[in-house]
Write a structure and sequence with these properties.
Among the domains are: 17-184 and 204-232, Rossmann fold, CATH 3.40.50.150; 350-407. The protein is α/β, with parallel strands linked by helices. The longest helix is centred in the last third of the chain and has 162 residues, at 237-398. 18% of the residues are buried. Helix content is 55%, strand content 12%. The protein contains eight helices and seven strands, in the order H-E-H-E-H-E-E-H-E-H-H-E-E-H-H. A seven-stranded mixed β-sheet has the order 3-2-1-4-5-7-6, sandwiched between helices.
């Protein structure tokens, strides 16, 4: 177990004397009931209380849920009548009616199922046994921890009436005690020790103002409940107050320095606050302008949405019209396609006929061309022959014999045509 005090369990010599006195005094109170009895210390923590009870008890069994705490206790207090056990206070691994006294100091407030502690204590108590339990006063405890905050190890804290009613619901006989620090004066003979006479001024005690509640519970009636005073060796009140005053003075100095530093930080924070306020005002103005723009934008969006809806409607109508027109055109195209196919078939037939006729014409043309070529050749031949005859005739006419015959009227008469 760590030797550092965390607030969950008291560690001897590592806690404030007042805190130590509060805890050890409860075991001194219980030791009057443990003489020659079988004792169970439920939630023993570091074991100092179980060791205190073992001085007067026949045997002490100490249990705790923490293995580290039990190991620490076993190492610190190796006594023959002390037995250590790792177990839960809400599920005791112990047979019925095994103990004459069960102690559970500052345990019940640490448990979620705290009612099980009461029923388990009742179960393991022998006839005539007693259950002694303590818890802090919720009202006082909250006030004393105002600065440090709630105890993180506590699950449920009790006010006086709730604590009393919870105990009497399980045990028919409950004697309630209040534990408080008190100022006193000690007259002690030099060299003496042991018992002392205690005188208390008459004063009504108030549970609401008390520090702690302690109850002795039993299934059968109990004897009178005398007042118990525990005077520890560290209880020199003036010395304790001197130490406390020194601590307070040191705390005051620390707080003064802290306040001065806090004042400087406050001034810085004020300046920062003013700067941030100015920035915030600028941002608020910007936000208002942005809101106006957003509002205008929203209106424009609504307008565009309306226009878009109208455009969608118009588009839908136009699409429907287009669809009707497309259907009409498709019908027309189909009709024209059928006409084109029929026309193509008719033209193809006519073209075939024309081609056949054209072929016949081409053949006739070829024949005509051949005839023409032959007649042209014949004509050309006639021209040659005519030219030749004309040449001969010219030669004849130009001969002197013909001229001579004309002169004498001899020979045939020739006419040049």
């Amino acid at each position: 177990m760590s030797t550092e005090f965390t607030g969950e369990r008291v560690i001897p010599n590592l806690v404030d004397p007042n805190l130590w006195n509060e805890h050890i005094a409860r075991y001194a109170f219980a030791s009057r009931l443990s003489r020659n009895r079988r004792v169970l210390d439920a939630g023993c923590g570091t074991g100092y209380g179980a060791a205190e009870l073992s001085y007067s008890a026949n045997s002490v069994t100490a249990i705790d849920l923490s293995q580290d705490a039990v190991a620490y206790a076993r190492n610190q207090y190796p006594r023959r009548n002390l037995n250590w056990l790792v177990a839960s206070c809400t599920a005791l691994p112990i047979a019925d009616q095994s103990f004459d006294l069960v102690a559970a100091f500052e345990v019940i407030e640490h448990l979620k199922d705290w009612r099980l502690l009461l029923t388990e204590a009742k179960r393991v108590l022998a006839p005539g046994g007693q259950f002694i339990v303590s818890t802090p006063n919720k009202t006082y405890y909250a006030e004393s921890r105002k600065l440090s905050g709630p105890n993180p190890f506590h699950e449920h804290e009790f006010e006086y009436e709730e604590f009393r009613d919870a105990l009497t619901a399980v045990f028919p006989h409950v004697s309630l005690f209040l534990q408080d620090h008190t100022e006193g004066l000690l007259f002690q003979a030099v060299g003496s020790s042991g018992s002392a006479e205690v005188r208390m001024e008459g004063k009504d005690c108030s549970p609401q103002d008390s520090n702690f509640f302690i109850a002795v519970c039993a299934m059968s009636p109990q004897t009178d409940s005398p007042t118990f005073v525990y005077l520890p060796s560290t209880a020199n009140l003036l010395r304790e107050r001197g130490i406390h005053i020194s601590r307070l003075e040191s705390e005051v100095q620390t707080k003064d320095a802290w306040l001065e530093e806090s004042h400087k930080q406050h001034q810085q924070m004020v300046a920062l606050f003013r700067q941030q306020t100015a920035q915030l005002e600028q941002r608020n103005t910007w936000a208002q302008e942005l809101d106006a723009k957003l509002h205008a934008g929203g209106q424009r969006i609504q307008q565009l949405q309306a226009e878009f809806a109208a455009a969608q409607k118009a588009s839908a109508e136009l699409a429907a019209a287009y669809a009707a027109k497309v259907a009409e055109l498709e019908d027309e195209v189909q009709t024209r396609t059928q006409w084109a196919i029929a026309t193509e078939q008719r033209l193809s037939a006519e073209l075939d006929a024309k081609c056949t006729e054209l072929a016949r014409c081409v053949d006739v043309l070829h024949e005509t061309e051949a005839t023409l070529e032959a007649r042209t050749a014949w004509a050309l031949q006639l021209d040659k022959e005519r030219d030749a005859l004309a040449s001969k005739l010219s030669a004849v006419e130009a001969s002197r014999w013909v001229r001579l015959g004309r002169t004498f009227g001899i020979g045939p008469e020739h006419r040049n045509q």
